[in-house]
Amino acid sequence: MRETRTGGKGRDFPHPKPVNKIELSTEHGRLRLILTIVFLAIGAAAIAYGVSGLSSKEAGWTEIEVSSSELNCSADFVFLYCLGESGVSATAENKAITACYSDATEYAFRMFTNDVEYEDSHNMHYINRHPNEEIEVDEVLYRAFSLIQESGDRSLYLGPVYEQYNGLFNCTEEYQTVEYDPYLNQETADYYAAIAGFAGDEQIINLELLGENRICLRVAEEYLEFAEENEVERLIDFYWMKNAFIVDFLAEEMSSAGYSKGCISSVDGFTRNLDRSGESYAYTFYDRVDSAIYPVANIQYSGPSSIVYLQDYGMNDGQMQYYYAYSNGELRTAYLDVQDGLCRSAVSDLACYSGEYSCGEILLRMIPVYIADTFQRERLSGLAGEGIFSIYSEDGRICHNDAELMLTSLYRDKDVQYEAVLVQ
Questions:
Q1: CATH domain 261-422 topology
Q2: Share of the chain above pLDDT 70, in %
Q3: Which of 109, 312, 320, 365 qualifies as a FRET site for 55, CA 20 to 30 Å off?
Q4: Residues 6+ away with beta carbon under 8 Å from 59
């Protein structure tokens, strides 16, 4: 029975047992030392073997995961790679690819972020806080700005709208959306329209490309005053378009480093296939009918390709960052029209792909077709003439303009049936 003693407040405390002192023998001390070293060596070898086993990779397809603890954009992307075909071990190849990909995702985040300031980087955050100043930027930003300028698209200048509108997608209750949704709030609609008016006027705001990676964000005084009054911090922003340019950068970085047996996809519809081996790949195309989403077909393709897939609905957590569904079935997306700052989608889903153009180049050609009140199918024929082919769903038909496209596994059940139609 355990002995106890009673404290002043009636609590019981354990009474410790006597401690027996044992004298250690000093005999065979050298032997014990040797055995200790041997056991430690065995333990270290076992640990090393275990770590090696955990980090070893088998040949074949695997997902490359970023190893860095620094801020990076890898959460928005999936990089699948086929290890073991380069002549080096799969483990060594995985280590090298991981290091390269980690560096690339860190760098991309640093350049395109509007949230973080870096002392040694003239990124988007820096540009927005230094209007009317000549700035030297890194090549990846300069190329993206150049593509946008060549296209004539002005979505980049809707930064202040994006800054407020993005709050819509963080709402958990419908009553919270009124502050952000211009379709529900006339004051918000007027504010977005005012910004759209500024955004569409090159005399008010314009990003000048001065050559040799030098730029200047020209902003008129009246717009600067407006921005100050409304606490605007983002005059320009890639927003939902950002990952199109980032996936292009990541693809180019991996290819230039010699890692081409893979495919990089963003969670919001931008894909770059790097593989030149001729191996066949599949891409699933979906369609929304009211609130139901169907995987209507698999698209077979091979060779280096860029795919841009725009949808007015979300299917995963990554996509839901740019979608909001009301209980009455109405949908809101991040595809805002630069004319008035309102979201528009001419069709539920539109995919465009090419073996010649990057995702950024394809996207900028798609925007006038997709962000519109009416679907102008004839404009897709013009894109096909440039080598950019399209797929969209319409009344149970999977319409495409690529005579060589291979569609398999067409969706059919008793209520919904799809057929493929070549539209020239």
A1: T-fold (3.10.520)
A2: 86
A3: 109
A4: 83, 84, 85, 90
